[in-house]
Amino acid sequence: MPRVKKQEFSIIIPAYNEAAGISEFLEKLIKEVKKHKEYSAEIIVVNDGSVDETFEKASVFEDVTVITHKHNKGYGASLKTGIRASKTKTIVIIDADNSYDIEDIYLLLKFFKENDMVVGVRNVLDHKGEFMRRMARRVFRTLAHFLTLKKIPDLNSGLRVMDKEVVNKYMYLLPDGFSFTTTITLAMLTGLNYVHYEPVRYHPRTGSSKISPVVDFSRFIYLILTTILCFKPVRIFMPIAGVFFALSIFVLLFSYFYLGKVMDITTVLLFLSGTNFFGIGLIAELIVRLSKKNG
Questions:
Q1: What is the pTM assigned to this prediction?
Q2: What is the pLDDT of residue 23?
Q3: For residues 239-263, b (16+ Cβ closer than 10 Å) or e, as one string?
Q4: With CB atoms 3.0 to 4.6 Å apart as the test, which of 18, 76, 152, 165 could cross-link to 176 if both were Cys?
């Protein structure tokens, strides 16, 4: 009887000052991996310049490869390091803070065969968190949906399965900070890759969060806009052009019917501004399409 080839994948775990819970996490992870005989998993922990005992506690486990950054480079940089070091074509990323159920990795893997990325959708509505953080998530999702024209249940989930080849294609876009997951989601959606969303369980994390709501909020907005510019610039420029065209018509009609004269200079300036944004959008879209064709 021929041996059935096991499905191979790499689990990348970014860890920065996670000494409080990483031992418990890795024990559960190794136990779960050994239960699933039909899979073969390599486990890579990227110690991102931790100043606590993260490295010492992770290094105890023989089944775990630990890579250390000499100084803190960021969440995204840790994932990039792990992806480059991985030996398989399938990448799983998961946080080391015990906020995700490890068995959900295998739930996502079931849907990966027909997709380029499978995202674990957190039930954050039932998870107590800061008001500003919940509002920020809502703003991100709304803006991302508007720009991609696709429903995004969870923009920056830290549990997902990805095709390494596809991730490498977008590596030049991916930031070193917490916006890695947001950017890869937008890149795949606007790049016409297949993305599947699957609900997973989510729990309060072990230890303290490393995210700064104010600083990371501005970074997320910036990255959403720049990512869309790289793939679908018309989604940004055309709405702006439409606003200027609408304002020019409004000023024209308002000044004619209510002021008894046409505000011709204001109307013309608004119309020309709309024309400029419309033209820039078309040129940017043409550049993107030509670069894809030549790339």
A1: 0.78
A2: 94
A3: ebbeebbebbeebbeebeeeeeeeb
A4: 76
Q: What is the pLDDT of residue 126?
A: 46
Give the model's confidence band at 64: pLDDT under 50 very low, under 70 low, under 90 confident, else very high: very high
pLDDT tens profile 205-261: 665 555 555 556 677 777 777 777 877 788 889 999 999 999 999 999 988 888 878
**Pick from 41, 38, 46: which is nearest to 13 by CA?**
46
Is residue 12 within 8 Å of residue 87, measured between CB atoms? no
How many whole angstroms separate alpha carbon 275 and alpha carbon 116?
Answer: 38
Q: What value does the CA radius of gyration of the chain take, rounded to a whole number of Å?
A: 23
CA distances from 202 to 14, 84, 94, 159, 162 (A): 18, 28, 12, 10, 20
Instruction: Name the pairing type of β-strands 117-122 and 195-200.
Output: parallel
| Rounded CA separation 261/254 (Å) | 9
Spatial strand order in the sheet of 90-93? 64-69, 39-48, 7-15, 90-93, 160-163, 117-122, 195-200
DSSP 97-122: SS-B-TTHHHHHHTT-TT-SEEEEEE
Tokens of 39: 């899979």
Take residue 118 and report the two structure tokens written for it: 């499978």
Question: CB-based burial of residue 8 (10 Å sphere; 0-12 exposed, 13-18 middle, 19+ buried)?
Answer: middle
Report the distance separating Cα 13 and Cα 64, nearest Å: 10
Residue listed under structure tokens 């100043």: 51
Rounded Cα distance between 161 and 117, Å, is: 6
Burial (CB < 10 A; 0-12, 13-18, 19+), residue 194, is: middle
Mean pLDDT value across residues 21-37:
94
Residue 1 has pLDDT above 50, yes or no: no
List all residues 6 or more positions away from 103 whose beta carbon is below 8 Å from its beta carbon.
Answer: 32
